[in-house]
Amino acid sequence: MDRIKLNIYNDPEIVKKLSNFIKKEAEKLKKTIKIMHICGTHENSIVRFGLRDLLPGNITVIAGPGCPVCVTSSRDIDAIIELALKENIKLLTFGDMLKVPGSRLSFSKAISMGADIQMIYSIFDGIEIAKNSDKPCIFFACGFETTAAPTAAALKDLEIPKNFYIYSVHKYTPNGVYALLKSGKISMDALILPGHASTISGLKTYERFTDEFGLPSVAAGFEAADILLAIALIVKQINNKEAKVENAYTRVIEYEGNKRAQQAIDEVFYLTSSIWRGLGEIENSGYELKDKYRQFDAKKQFNITYTNDYIEHQKGCKCNEIILGNLTPKDCPLFTKRCTPHDPIGPCMVSDEGTCKNWYDGGLI
């Protein structure tokens, strides 16, 4: 979208009008409400624009499990690092995975011990690297639907070199959040739905959230007005005693999602149980390669060792409770003291989608 047009969504007058509308609607609320977003980039925008300061005291916006590297289990990180240290392979990964701590090591620390690990921006970079390498190249494929789609499209449509493999830790957002809601591990009055992932999965899948849990659910973009509009629609729903799925990001999200991307994902992947870091094993929430693509599946082509004594969070780290929205970074005794972006103890301090990293960078200390 044209930058001039995008600036409309940060126009001070529009933002002020939305803030005033929310405050007026909030006067009708019977209680303090808690709205959870499930997209790490929303937290980045909320902190960057100072949006919590524009809300009345009876509306709280909390961050949920919307950061993909934050919910990538130590079990997988440990296993792939051990393989990279033992075998003559090249490990490829996104930049925000490099500092995510496993039980003992991060990818960055494994590099200092001799592991051949290279940062890439996309699976397409990885494929080109593999074409020019005499080593097996394994792409540690992290992310929600947004990154699962290009992984699927590449395997489905491109000529893949024989030395290129996928280690999938892709996760499916709607099923993960749905399971956490059913278990009672997360609690809120309404949801701001993901902006990125929903471009792929669409919004229809979230109708079960409104039908079963009575949660107003609104998809939002990432500019100040986008997020405030979503909050305004949520408050209006609550005051009208409604619970429905609405789209406040119509310039990008279609209600049914991206059908071509969904078809590519369905052809290449199947959904299975997956460990979400600190949250446990969640059924039908992880993408694994179908048997048709087993020649590219690192989990099937390499002797990968898993242990049951992996450590998801170091002593004192509260990332699991922060991911669930039960605590804020300030509630963690390690935040800004032992845990910083330069030397993170927990996964929430690593990525620009991590709540602790956003609060640290935003000066919320």
UniProtKB/TrEMBL annotation:
<keyword id="KW-0479">Metal-binding</keyword>
<dbReference type="GO" id="GO:0051539">
    <property type="term" value="F:4 iron, 4 sulfur cluster binding"/>
</dbReference>
<dbReference type="GO" id="GO:0051604">
    <property type="term" value="P:protein maturation"/>
</dbReference>
<keyword id="KW-0408">Iron</keyword>
<dbReference type="InterPro" id="IPR042244">
    <property type="entry name" value="HypD_2_sf"/>
</dbReference>
<dbReference type="Pfam" id="PF01924">
    <property type="entry name" value="HypD"/>
</dbReference>
<dbReference type="InterPro" id="IPR002780">
    <property type="entry name" value="Hyd_form_HypD"/>
</dbReference>
<protein>
    <submittedName>
        <fullName>Hydrogenase expression/formation protein HypD</fullName>
    </submittedName>
</protein>
<dbReference type="GO" id="GO:0070025">
    <property type="term" value="F:carbon monoxide binding"/>
</dbReference>
<comment type="similarity">
    <text>Belongs to the HypD family.</text>
</comment>
<dbReference type="GO" id="GO:0005506">
    <property type="term" value="F:iron ion binding"/>
</dbReference>
<dbReference type="InterPro" id="IPR042243">
    <property type="entry name" value="HypD_1"/>
</dbReference>
